Amino acid sequence: QVQLVESGGGLVQAGGSLRVSCAASGSILSINAMGWYRQAPGKQRELVASITSGGSTNYADSVKGRFTISRDNAKNTVYLQMNSLKPEDTAVYYCSARVVATTRATLDLWGQGTQVTVSS
Length: 120
What we know:
This protein is mostly beta strands. Helix content is 0%, strand content 61%.
């Protein structure tokens, strides 16, 4: 079974920094795109940042210049470094990944979500 497990998150003051991590585990052949989404109360889930297997990145306009997505392919892990955090960044953050399992099945997976709260 392949799964994504997130870590990090928590409570931080505005202007502070936080890093969240997401590790894929199980019978993995390869991982294509990985990304981070977030969902604030009463709002739809939105893409925060994504990264391809080759390292190309994409960011939501609201986080450009403040957040950095990276991945360690050897560890099957994706990171989101969040700097200059604002109260409006408060949300549950979910990682996602398109994983090719050893069975050759392609799986679109989600992590369980981790809460990020930014106090003003």
